[in-house]
């Protein structure tokens, strides 16, 4: 990259007033980001810090200098190995400046171990090629059999991976036959040996599930599983293939080509035996359930047997029990009849007593009748006397109120021409004709004067 010393690559604004520190740091950051492209930097990791946010902070140094670096969480999560102090790495970075503190720093986009850049590039190229061909397509993946009849293992016969696999299978599915296809897993010719072992298992068809396994190591140690010949042998295998290569953070081309990936060889063995292991637990549960049901059935049958045994009697015992029951019923019947007879006799006596009380007595009733006759006659005579005295009083009162008696004492009744009784002089006018009524006879007259 060439820079012209006379003309600044990044234009610096000329202002009459001084810049603030924030403005200066912003200008410096913009200048760095615009003038220095994405590049690779090699160095040793030191001062490594992992923040709670997931960001990773460290320094890259060489013999005479160091620079602060930050790898944000989104990038750090994709790192296939664990970053530690003292590692020699190559970092793909963007040069920048942290404005709040004015710190020059590198924003890390990718990391690789030093000297492994070519391997990573070869890995990426082969992965892209096979992916375009559809070898890694999800619809190509085959379903693992739940209950494999035999399990094939392609691995080193002297490696720790085989020991871990066999120990796991002995614990989880000891009945499952295991066929080992020994092969080189590291070094020159390892890839061809692995592919040949897979092809041998495919031709012999002794197993219905194949496990490809190797313990952890560096990318160089695992490179045999990044070869194209191994990936194509996995895809060509007639049975499903589980890849259990390396540790949890190790990814190989074989992992992408396999029908299913396991984090470790032990996890691959667990995955292969998952159906049998789950079936064993289910079988234990079913056995417990069946035992419980059988115990309940036996207990119910035993109770029913005890009940039937209690009901089972000798004919003589049954006859004797019936005789005692019949005698008891006879005693109860006799007592019930006797109680009923006594109750009916008592009721009959009460009815007879009531009838005798209701029988008529002529002599006693004749006396009552004479007394009633005398009382009735006396009451009638008294009523007649009271009515006669009242009538006499009314006659005297009526006589006193008779108008004729009043007229006999010298009074007269005055009526106008219409026959209305005159009780007030204001009812008359001069020359009015009046009619007078006396005790004997009457007279007519005319009004001359009103007083």
From TrEMBL:
InterPro entries documented for this protein: Exonuc_VII_L (IPR003753), Exonuc_VII_lsu_C (IPR020579), OB-fold_nuc-bd_dom (IPR025824)
Catalytic reaction equation(s): Exonucleolytic cleavage in either 5'- to 3'- or 3'- to 5'-direction to yield nucleoside 5'-phosphates
EC numbers: 3.1.11.6
Enzyme class: hydrolase
Domain Exonuclease VII large subunit C-terminal intervals: 135-443
GO process terms (BP): DNA catabolic process
A single Gene Ontology CC term: exodeoxyribonuclease VII complex
UniProt keywords, alphabetically: Cytoplasm, Exonuclease, Hydrolase, Nuclease
Pfam families in alphabetical order: Exonuc_VII_L, tRNA_anti_2
Limits of the OB-fold nucleic acid binding domain: 19-111
Localization in the cell: Cytoplasm
Organism domain of life: Bacteria
GO MF annotation, one: exodeoxyribonuclease VII activity
Keyword Cytoplasm listed: yes
Assigned protein family: Belongs to the XseA family.
Subunit structure of this chain's protein: Heterooligomer composed of large and small subunits.
Purpose of the protein: Bidirectionally degrades single-stranded DNA into large acid-insoluble oligonucleotides, which are then degraded further into small acid-soluble oligonucleotides.
Name of the protein: Exodeoxyribonuclease 7 large subunit
């Amino acid at each position: 990259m060439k820079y012209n010393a006379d003309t600044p690559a990044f234009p610096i604004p000329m202002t009459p007033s001084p810049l603030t520190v924030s403005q200066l740091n912003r200008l410096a950051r913009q200048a760095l980001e615009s003038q220095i492209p994405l590049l690779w930097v090699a160095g040793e990791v030191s001062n490594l810090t992992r923040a709670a946010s997931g960001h990773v902070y460290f320094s890259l140094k060489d013999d005479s200098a160091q620079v602060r670096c930050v790898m944000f969480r989104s990038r750090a999560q994709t790192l296939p190995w664990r970053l530690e102090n003292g590692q020699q790495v190559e970092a793909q970075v963007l040069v920048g400046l942290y404005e709040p503190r004015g710190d020059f720093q590198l924003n890390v986009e990718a990391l690789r171990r030093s000297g492994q850049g070519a391997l990573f590039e070869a890995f990426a190229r082969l992965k892209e090629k096979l992916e375009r061909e559809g070898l890694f397509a999800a619809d190509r993946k085959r379903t693992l059999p739940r209950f494999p009849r035999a399990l094939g293992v392609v691995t080193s016969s002297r490696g720790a991976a085989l020991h871990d696999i066999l120990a796991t299978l002995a614990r989880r599915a000891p009945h499952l036959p295991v066929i080992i296809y020994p092969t080189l897993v590291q070094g020159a010719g390892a890839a061809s040996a692995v592919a040949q072992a897979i092809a041998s298992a495919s031709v012999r068809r002794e197993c219905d599930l194949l496990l490809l396994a190797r313990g952890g190591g560096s990318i160089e140690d695992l490179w045999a599983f990044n070869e194209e010949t191994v990936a194509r042998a996995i895809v060509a295998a007639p049975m499903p293939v589980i890849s259990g290569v390396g540790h949890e953070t190790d990814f190989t081309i074989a992992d992408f080509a396999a029908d299913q990936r396991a984090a470790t060889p032990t996890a691959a063995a667990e995955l292969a035996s998952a159906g049998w292991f789950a079936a064993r637990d289910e079988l234990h549960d079913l056995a417990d359930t069946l035992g419980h049901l059988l115990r309940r059935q036996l207990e119910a049958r035993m109770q029913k047997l005890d009940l039937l045994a209690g009901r089972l009697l000798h004919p003589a015992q049954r006859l004797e029990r019936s005789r005692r029951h019949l005698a008891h019923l006879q005693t109860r019947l006799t007592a019930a009849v006797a109680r009923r007879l006594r109750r009916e006799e008592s009721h009959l006596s009460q009815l007879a007593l009531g009838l005798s009380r209701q029988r008529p007595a002529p002599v006693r009733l004749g006396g009552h009748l004479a007394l009633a006759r005398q009382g009735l006659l006396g009451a009638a005579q008294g009523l007649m006397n009271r009515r006669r005295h009242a009538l006499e009083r009314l006659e005297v009162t009526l006589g006193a109120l008779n108008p004729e008696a009043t007229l006999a004492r010298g009074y007269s009744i005055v009526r106008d021409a219409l026959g209305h009784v005159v009780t007030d002089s204001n009812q008359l006018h001069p020359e009015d004709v009046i009619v007078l009524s006396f005790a004997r006879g009457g007279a007519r007259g005319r009004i001359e004067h009103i007083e």
